Amino acid sequence: MPSDAKKTSALPNKQDLEAMSVFRYELRKFLRVSEEISNAAGITTLQYQLLLHIRGFPERRWATVGELAERLQAAPNGTAALVSRCEAAGLVIRKTDKTDRRQVQVHLTAKGERCLLKLAAEHKAHYGSFGWIFGAGPNASSDSHIEG
User: Fold this and answer.
1) Which residues form the HTH marR-type domain (predicted)?
2) Which regions of the chain are under pLDDT 50?
């Protein structure tokens, strides 16, 4: 085994554990709210995340199934099935790449764009505790709201 593979971390101290606990608590609160927002709109949180990652992909308005699988930290075949469910719901459409016919692009439909923007607006209000997302400082208040 290479020596760099044997790297050991220092055991966390009480302050580390408290910080990790607060992070996980805030993350779980956000995920619970996200589930409620998505479910109220009639889609799953994974469907919402798929729409977000398609539209939020850097420098373009589409993504491949492989790129989406990476963003979702999911298996490509599971992501392809998720794309199919979103396609059946009229939220996305697959398009063959014009320059590389082996590549399939996943695009939002007009319905998918409307759904994403509505849900993203609702989510954005809850990102206040994660101020770094929109460039706020690390001391952003947990109840602050980002104007959009």
Assistant:
1) 20-148
2) 1, 137-148
